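Hello forum,

I keep getting stuck at the same step: I have a sequence, I want structure tokens, and every attempt I make locally crashes halfway through. Rather than fight my setup again tonight, could one of you with a working pipeline run this one for me? It's a single chain of 185 residues.
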Amino acid sequence: MTQEIMTHTKSHMEKSLESLRKDFSTLRSGKVSVSVLDNIRVSYYDTPTPLNQVGSVIAQDASTIVITPWEKSLLKDIEKAIQEANIGVNPNSDSECIKLFFPPMTQEQRKDIAKEAKAMGEKAKIAVRNIRQDGNNHIKKLEKDKQITEDISKKAQDDVQKLTDEFVKKIDEMVKHKEEEVMKI
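Reply #2:
Ran it on my machine without issues. Output:
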């Protein structure tokens, strides 16, 4: 029974780590990444549709993203969605595609993004600790219901703590790596 709780706890902690990876992908680092556009939705036949599903999105070089819509009629809608998303650049459109020119980041912007990465890491740690608490509560309930002994309960709680420490360490490493990536010029 405690093995099921451990498996469940570990899988939820891994999901928290994956969520942090996704959050980090939306942060801008030294070179531009198309993932900064992941949260942008375009009105496509009155349905909010992800930008990468209405056209091709390519990082042309370290500071330029090119968006080529599959339907030319979407150019204005895509421009509008990008402006409303407030990602720090204005779309430049010819009649074929939209280009986003990202200026080099200032030291101040880099510090702000590094702070944002740290805050995302803290949220992930909180999520992992909540998962730990949930796992421990399940273990304590089994002990209370006399389904496991006190010794097994203590060992299982220690194992959950070791798992938590392991994931917190991974989160710290991810945050450190992201901060170094952002601060590198």
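The chain has four helices and six strands. If your local run keeps crashing, start a new thread with the error log.
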